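Box 3.1 — From sequence to structure: DUF3108 domain-containing protein
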Amino acid sequence: MGHAIGAITLLLPSLILASALVGVSNRTFANDELAKPLDLPLQACSRSSHYAIYLSGIHTGTMSRTETWQGKTAVVTSKSEASILGIGTQYQQRAELSWSDNTHEWLTDNFHQKVTGFRSRDMRVSFENAGRESRVDIDGDVDTYSSDSIPLRDVDTLAIQIREYLLQGRKQFALIRQASDAIEPYQLYVQEQLSENIPPWGELSLIPVEQTGAEDVTYYFAPALDYQLVKARYHGFILHGLIELDNYTSTCEPNIVQWP
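Predicted structure (token representation):
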């Protein structure tokens, strides 16, 4: 799920996103509810997703993503292969994340990202101060970044936090992504559910989440598929990016579940 933002932004040059404001939940939670995630796996388990990548309607590559859960921690590994502007590009990332009992949210502990081909880089990032400070090492060049109020996250933790907010019933919220040479704020708005035919699962109810700013992206989550991301669409001025889920496997239920 979380690799969607990374895959979309790999398709086109990065743009500066508009400043974000903190959203307000439409639901009130007791302190003991907020002290733990709403969907914490009770034992070690994993979730694996596979996506097709399209650029302006043309199939350009694939992306796979695996979450390995152990209590309030997880390791997410992502890999994509695509042809960007005629250049073969590979993207690999390993992110470690954990639940904060103090701030009641998922935070990135560190991540390692390697890109070859288009926008090649070797990027290692660590976080401190509840995710509000980062140290970014790109090919040996080190920079530091900070945020006044909202934690900085990698793309995978960011998407896991979006899912957490959906489970909480939030209708709008702010998130910030740690990019390679900047921090990029997002303002996201949850839309009314809609129904769509998603091969190979057929008719599914989807929850659209719209991201505003210089980059206009819509994410679609399916409650019937464990609130996983089934589609993300980048609405570019000239080019349009799209990823679509074509396989999902989870052992994070009492019994192993696989769709389809």
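Summary of the box: Residues 22 and 174 are 5 Å apart (CA to CA).
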